[in-house]
Amino acid sequence: MEKIDLRKQLKHLYNPPVDNPVFVEVPDFNYLMIDGRGLPDGPDAIAAIEALYAVAYTIKFTIKKEKDIDFGVMPLESLWWSDDMNDFIHTNKANWQWIYLIMQPNFITSSMVEQAIREVSKKKNPAAIEKIRFAQLSEGKAAQIMHIGPYSAEGPNIEKIHSLIKGSGHKFDGAIQKHHEIYLSDPRRIPPEKWKTVIRQPFV
Description:
This is GyrI-like small molecule binding domain-containing protein. The chain is an alpha+beta fold. The chain is built from six helices and ten strands, in the order E-H-H-E-E-H-E-E-H-E-H-E-E-H-E-E.
């Protein structure tokens, strides 16, 4: 059986330095996505995450059975912004917009995703299953850092990223080049002070 470890292959994107942000070039990747608005821990976000994982694992086990390929489900990721970016800066979370997403290997097709959605709908029918879409994300140039600790303490590391981008003569529009987080820890099993989160900011 062929085994694929995308996190290992893409280590430079999923294991940045802790102390200082670095520049990376992010290729185009395909994702399972759900769009929403409001609190990161609100019912809509929780429902989105549940549906994404259900479909992601269904795809994994189907490919393992039918194609004899074993690959690990990638970590949950999210994009964040607001129509009025002051709401984002001042943490008015009820007005935040988000996309939760899980990367898929490049051999996964839209028909495979549609099949998995049908299977999950029949077996579990999670609340947000109909909101899942399969799409490509293009980020290109970005700066990123590894944050260790609770999400509420990300501020200083976000500032480091923004300072590096602006200090290098680049810029970004937070509503277009969206704030990106990659969650490497399971918050149900690991205490907040040990959570690992990749914080990424694309720029132009």
